[in-house]
Each structure stands twice: as structure tokens, then as C-alpha cells.
Amino acid sequence: MNFSARINAVLAVLLAALIALPLAVTSNFAYDILIRILLFAFIGTSWNLLGGYAKQFSLGHAAFFGLGAYTSSLLQINYGVSPWLGMLAGGVVAMLASLPIGWLCFRLRGPYFTIATIATAQVLMLVFLKFRDFAWGAEGTTMPNLGSAPLMMQFEGKAPYYYVALGLLLLSLVVTFYISRSRTGYYLLALGEDQDAAEAVGIDVPGEKRNIFMVSAFLTAMGGTFYVQYIYFIDPNTAFNFDVSIKAALVSIVGGVGTLFGPLIGTVLLETTAALLQSWLGNQAGVQVTVYALILMAIILWRPTGIMGFAKEFLLRKKLRATP
Amino acid sequence: MLETVTQAVINGLLIGGIYALVSIGVTLIFGVVKIVNFAQGEFVMIGMYITFFLATQLGMDPIVSLVVSMPVLFVIGLGVQHFLIRRVLGLNDLPQIFLTFALSLLILNVALMVLTPNYRTLHTSYSDAALHFGGFYVPVAKLIAFGVAMLLSAILWVFLHTTDLGRAMRAASQNRDVAQLMGINPHRVFAVALGIALALAGAAGSLLMPFYPAYPMVGQVFVLMAFVAVVLGTLGNVMGALVASLLMGIAESLGIQFIGADSGLIVVFLLLLITLAVKPSGLAA
Amino acid sequence: MRQQRRKFLKHAGQAAAAALAAPYVMRGYAADTINIGGLYPSTGSMAQIGQACVVAAKMAVEMVNNAGGVKALGGAKLNLILSDVQSDTTVTRTETDRLISGNKLTAVHGCYASALTLIASEVCERAKVPIITGSSSDQLNKGRHFTFTPFARASQFAKAQLQMSKLVGDKPKVAVVFENTAFGTSTSNGLKELAPGEGVEIVMFEPYSAGFTDAGPLINKVKASGANMLFSVSYLNDLILIVRTVKQVGLNIAINGGSGGFVIPDFYKNVGKAAEGLLGVAHWNHDVSDLAQKLNDEYKKRTGEFIFEYAGGLVAQTFMLKEAMERAKSADPVKVRDALAALDVSSGYAAMAPGGKVKFGPDGKNVYGHPVGVQWQNGDLVSVFPKEDARKPLMKS
């Protein structure tokens, strides 16, 4: 078996293991951890398209998360539309929103782009906090209790949610895989390295940024729908929570920006750490994120390319040493 | 009607002074060191807690505690530059953004763990006092805060324009390479810039205590306002940040007055978005 | 090769996490203890209140256990399992879930703030565990079978407040300001709807951001509205800020502090003499009955302060749960729920409520539930309205 066939075989085995995992899991608590890992790996991978490959560091992805969440919730509660459709609708809304948001925010570069994205998510939160007639305002609402209703994305038991989250993650990985291999992928890497040079070479930088922003927004919004269906509750604070924006970026940086599996690895590391901390120290405010922040600082100061970058370097060195 | 507007403007102007202290720090760091300090709000928070504990343990008045909070934060600024910022200076945007961001998360959450999320408030003799004239009222504590803020800004301006070190900072801000060629030690300049910026943040914290509660997340509100002011006032421009901060305070106050008590921030952000749409380089560019 | 290693590490990690999580397996119904869950905001913006509630919750369980526990179950003792909801809606959602799925609970009580309780009650509804609460939002009684509210609802507060406004003046012109979460919006809606019927004119109706830090502009607006009375539907920190700002602005206006932050000892501590004579409403007060006074004395011995509305109420709720367990002769949550639905008591701590009677209707509301009007007099909160519940005469200012 040659190299890439071997990799494919391994990936296939691991995928099968992931699919079969629910057979081994019994505790709700474990499910919660796994679902969170899958969901945030999904969101991180979606973020990575814009933030990792194109190096446009958004800290406002909660805007799309929230738009997705609210779109599907409004459609479900007001019009009885299934959240499966609502998920797609939410993606479309987020995609459309990314156009004016991108138009505004891309006018700034680097850290100021980041700040503009933070402001955007905040504005959306404030708008949804204020307008009660439109979307339940600050109080939010809970999803109607339908018991077991797979067509309405409500399940008894956690295993189905696990599979939905797994499906989303796989979707984002596949999308990222194809984009990174395509011409778009190279354009993104180029403009991420040096925007002016890329433009000079003839790459349609604004167009590429706009397009990848749309894709990233669409996917992130789907995560929003899933999340509110999972916790069957939505309010502006939950939907547009800054923590979502932070986590999306955080897992990608820790795992390795601009890599396919970086966000997933980053999520596994951070969420596992969080779960361990929780079982040792309880849910004390501030503990988890302190550890996240320390990990992040360590990565930035010593290995800015993240875990994947570190792994690649390590294996490269091994290979070099092995060559006669 | 005019009365209401005037009162709202007074209120807004006063709080704008505090925003100015925070935003001047941010813009100074950005101008000189070319780094966005996401953790600026957390240093305001540290200033607030320093003042709180000095007041409750030693009975020190918040305004007096400036002589403690400012130097302490200045030194912290030097430390941050030396141990953290210096190591990411040569690298691209990614490490720089996320370093200060991680720092912000770290400080905030350590504060959450150690100090607990509970609000800490101070009552001084002048916390509730107000000057009344002609149907208007001016809260004394806020007036003092405003006055000190303007004083510190003026001192900074003088420093930047008359002292050697200040001029070196402005030179480094305009063109780092040329400044280096002319013999200016960038790291010393950066360290001072960081020190001053953090000292201003600490001052803001101390001045806030008589009328604002201290809690770990308090910095987040101010830092967001500060960033908006920095963008509005043009990145790196100290005067711009000052004016923009005052304008934002007024805009927020008018927004609360005329749109709704829960709408102050929306107005500010709309200001930002409009500026981005129309003149992204800021008002002073 | 590298992919394989990475993937392996990733999955090993996942498996490890799941394995480590295994200790969080259901603890079964212990033979002679009955688990009840308590969800309160011990940290965050409502920390002081949450902590007081926790003290009361622990006291209540002690009281039940010292009196012999649940006799129908062989004297089984109550075991209180607490969880901090950090004054945050998302945390409430996950903590309630964690509490229920990690323990065999017979019932739950909490969470003080209506916004938080609404979420907790949804989780309880789906998990089929009864929740009993003093939170006032009328939403809590809509479409739920497992939520029980033995005390006054927000709409009842509103009516009482309006009636009390006529005690201080003939033509009340009221400015209503309210915090923008479930508690504030529920109560203020009630005020808006009932005002015309009570002959009260509302001249200003304004939500403000809960947790705001500058009340200046808001009070400005109150001044400009020409109101002679201010209804503030607020939690503690906001209310303190509002009252102090009113004083600072020099605005001469009567204040009805509603419930929420008004009825807490901390309010008086922070506002001082400015609180004297101010009126409010409460769903429970420590002078509601002799038993309440007894409870208050004990609480005061432990904490140095009087036991406030929600805390006293939740002691009564603990006893209501105990009564339900006695009736059901079981610790099974669904059976206890049915017993609660049929509860009808008029004596003992379980009936420690204004009016002294508790009986739940089909929507989980207490058919006898009504609020009392309260007033700060000499540093203590006393019931002054309606006549049947007044323990001291109204202090005129």
C-alpha cells in the first residue's frame, strides 16, 4: 500500500470509530463533551477558512452564529418550519449579512479589522436585545417541547445530536479540503501572506475575501442553529456570545491556523482540558478560560504555528535526520 | 427640550473624559509600538481594584490613590513590554493580535477566580454630590474625573511635544526605521509608551471608583469604547482619540436620552460603522 | 504516517475524556436520603441574593431533617444538592442539565431571577422533574406541568403597586422604568395593562439595560416626563443606582421600588435613610405569620440580617416539597409532582405565605397567592398593605 492509500485507510478506520462511538458512550456528561468538541471543531474549521487561510482574523463570528440561530428559531416558532430547512435558511441569511459586514470591515486591515468584527457582533446583540416584538428581546425563548421529533431536529437522548454535529464537522472538513486544494485555496494563502503582493500579481483580493467570508459565515450559521436546537433555548446573550467568537479563533490558533485538522485538534485539546478542569475544580468562574489563555499565550510565544505546525516541524526534522 | 439636551451633553462629556484616558492609551501604543492592546480594559480594571482595596483597607481617597495606581501600572507596562510584547515584535499580525488578546483573557479570568465576580462599590463623601446651577446638575465625582482626565491628557501632550523622549516616541510612531537610524532605542521608547498607556488606564480606573462598580468584566465595556474612539480619531492620533472619546460620550448620552435607555451603545457602534463606511481612516486623517 | 499519529492522538483524547467523565454517572436513589436540587446565582451580578438563598435553602433542609425528615418514607432525610447558575442564562441551561443528569433528583427549587428560572423550568419539564419557585414571571405558568409557583405573580405585583400608588396621592402620574429581562418585562407589562383600570396614568414607560452603570440619563427622562411617582422594576444593583441618582439629581418624587432589589437588606445598607418610607411589594415578608417571625429570628442569629422575601419563600417551598413527598409516599419525581398538584395546606411552614394557605391550580399557580405591600420603616421592612396583611400602619412622609 502506498503512502496516501495508507492515510486514506487510516482516516476511514477512524471515521468508522467515530461513527460507532455512541455505542460505547453511556453518560450524558460524556455526550455533552463530545458534542461540544464536534460543534466547536466545526465552528473553528469554518472560521479557519477566513481566519486561517486568508488570515483575516475575525472575532465577530458570533454574529453569524447568532443569525443562524435566530433565523431557524423564528422560522420554527412563528411558521412551523423545520429547523433542518431553517439551518439552510440561516446559512443564507448569514451569507447575505456577510456582504455588508465584509464591505464595512474589510476597509480596515489587521487588528482593526478584528475590532470592527467585534463591534459588528456586539451591534447585532444589542439590536436583538432591544427589539422585543421582533425576536423576543432580552428574555429570549425556549424551543417548543416536541418530545421526539426528528423532522424538527428534536431528539430524545443525546446520540442523534452527536451524529448531527459529526455530520456538520465532516461537512466543514470536506469543504475546507476542497477549497485548500483548489485555486481559491492558493489565492487565499497568497493574500493571507501579503495582501498587496497578491493584488499586484493579479488576484482579485476583495472578491476572494468576500467569497470566503460568505462560505465561512454560512457554515458558522449552521452551527448556531444546531446549538439552539441542542440546548432548546435562545436569547441574544447566548446567540451572539463573544465566547463563541473567541473559541472559534482560539481552537484554530492552538491547533494550527490554515491547516485542515488544526481546529479539530485544538478543540479536542481545549475541551478535554476544560472537562478535566470541571471535574477537578467544579464550575468555578474563570478557571477554564484562564487555562485557555495560558495555553494560547504559550502557543503564541513558542509555537505560533500551533500544534499542527509543531507536529509538521517535528516530523520534518525526523525525516531529515533519517535521510542519509 | 434644550434643557434636556444640554443635560445629556453634560453627562456625556463627563464620561467621555474617562473614555479618553483609556483610548489615548490604546492609540499611543498603536502609534508607537504598532500593536493593538486588547488588554487595555483589564488594566483599567486593575486600577479600579487597586483603588478599591486602598480605600477599604487604608481609607485612602480614590483621587489620592492615583499616586499609587499610576506608578504601579506604569511599571506593569514596562514589564508587559519587556516580557511579552518584545518577543512578538518581529512577527506578523497573528501573534501580536492574539498575544494581547490572550493577556486580556488571562487577566480577566484570573481576576474572576481570585476576586470573584461580585460588584465592589465605593462610597465617598462626594459620590452622590452634585453641583446645581440653572436647572442643570453636574455630578461632582464625574466632574473631578473629567478634570483630572483632561489634565493628564494635557500633560501627555506637553510631554510628547517638548521632551526628547516624547519626541522620540512621536518619531518612532511616524517612521520606525528612520527613527532607529537616528539613534533612538526602540525598545526603550516602546517600554515608556506602554508604561504611559497603562498608567493612564490605571488613572481611569481610580477616577471611576467613586461612581462606578468594580468587577472583573468591567474593562470590556471601556475597551470597546476605546477602540471605537481610536478608529474614529484615526489610529495613532492622540488628539483624535481624545476628541473622538468626548464625542462618543455625548453620542451615547444623547442616544440613551432620545432613543431609549438601553440604546446608548447602539448609537456608538452606529457611529463607528458610519465612519467605516464613509471615512475609514478616521476623522483626523 | 503523520496523519495516523495525529488522528490516533485525537481519538485517544476523546476516549480519555469520555472515560474520565464516567464518574459522573447517575447516583441512584439512596435508600434513606432524598435528593433535592437548588439552583441559585451565587456568583455574578446577583451574587449577594444567591448566597442568601443558599443559606436559607440549607436552613430549610436542616429544619425538615431535624423535625424527623419525611415520615412516610421512614424518616428519610433531605439532601440538598446546590448548583451555582452564575447569574447567567447559558450557565443555567447547562447547570440544570448537569444537576439533573448527574443525580437522581426528586425535585428542584430555584433560581430567583425569572429569566434563569424560565430556562431551568424548561429543562425540568423535559426531564420530568418538578420545580418549585418563587420567581414571578407569568410565563412560568404557561404550558408547563412540572412547574409550581406558590407565590404572587408579576401581574399581581403590578396591580398591588398601582393600588398602593393611590395611597400616597390622588392623581398619580407614574413613570415606569424596568430592567429588560423577564422579571422587568413581565411586571411592567402588567402595570401597563392594569393602570387604566386602576385609574393611574402612566406618563413614561422605559426599559433600561439590566446592570447599567449610569442612571443619570434615565432619571433625566423621568424628570422631563413630569411624573410624581416612579415605579422601578429592578434588581438590587440597578435599584441602588436609581435611588441614589434620584437623590443626586435632586428630583423630588415618590418611589415604589417594586419587588426584586427593593426587599433586600443590602438595599437599605447601600441607600441608607433615603430608603425610609419607600414603598414596594413582596411575595413574602418576615412578618407574614408567627412562624415567619420565628424563622426570621433564627436566620438573623446566623447572618445578622433579616430573612428577605425570596429566601423566606424558599423555606416554605422546601416544606411544601416535603408535604408532597409525605402525600405521595414516594421520592419518585413524577409521583411527587402529582402530589404537589393536589397539595392543599393551611398550617405549618408549608403554608407560610401571605394569606396562610397554599393550593395549586391546574396551571401551577397558588389559588390563594397574593402579594403584600411593604415599606421600609426604621431600617426594617414591614407589611403595610392590604389591610388583612398589614402588620404596621403605613408611614406617611
List the helices and strands and how they pair.
The complex is a heterotrimer of chains A (324), B (285) and C (397).
Chain A: H1 3-20, H2 28-53, H3 62-79, H4 83-105, H5 110-130, H6 132-135, E1 141-142, H7 159-181, H8 183-193, H9 195-200, H10 205-231, E2 233-234, H11 236-239, H12 242-255, H13 262-281, H14 287-302, H15 306-322
Antiparallel strand pairs in A: 1-2
Helix pairs in contact in A: 2-7, 2-10, 2-12, 2-13, 3-4, 3-5, 3-10, 4-10, 7-8, 7-10, 8-10, 12-13, 12-15, 13-14
Chain B: H1 2-33, H2 40-58, H3 66-88, H4 93-115, E1 130-133, E2 136-139, H5 140-162, H6 164-174, H7 176-181, H8 186-208, H9 218-232, H10 238-258, H11 264-278
Antiparallel strand pairs in B: 1-2
Helix pairs in contact in B: 1-5, 1-6, 1-8, 1-9, 1-10, 2-3, 2-8, 2-9, 3-8, 5-6, 5-8, 6-8, 9-10, 9-11, 10-11
Chain C: H1 2-21, E1 33-40, H2 47-66, E2 77-84, H3 89-102, E3 107-110, H4 114-127, E4 131-132, E5 147-148, H5 154-168, E6 173-179, H6 182-198, E7 201-208, H7 216-225, E8 229-233, H8 236-249, E9 254-256, H9 265-271, E10 279-282, H10 290-303, H11 309-328, H12 333-341, E11 344-345, E12 358-359, E13 372-377, E14 380-385
Describe the 3D structure:
The complex is a heterotrimer of chains A (324), B (285) and C (397). Chain A is mainly alpha-helical and 324 residues long. Chain A has a domain of 216 residues. Helices cover 77% and strands 1% of the residues of chain A. Chain A is built from 15 helices and two strands. Chain A has a two-stranded antiparallel sheet with strand order 1-2. The mean pLDDT of chain A is 88. Chain B has one domain. In chain B, 74% of the residues lie in helices and 3% in strands. Chain B has a two-stranded antiparallel ribbon. In chain B, helix 1 crosses helix 9 and helix 10 packs across helix 11. Chain B is globular, with a radius of gyration of 19 Å. Chain C is an alpha/beta fold and 397 residues long. In chain C, strands 2-1-3-4-5 form a five-stranded parallel sheet, sandwiched between helices. Chain C has a four-stranded parallel sheet with strand order 7-6-8-9, with helices on both faces. Chain C has a three-stranded antiparallel sheet with strand order 10-13-14, with helices on one face. In chain C, helix 2 runs parallel beside helix 11, helix 8 packs parallel to helix 9 and helix 11 packs across helix 12.
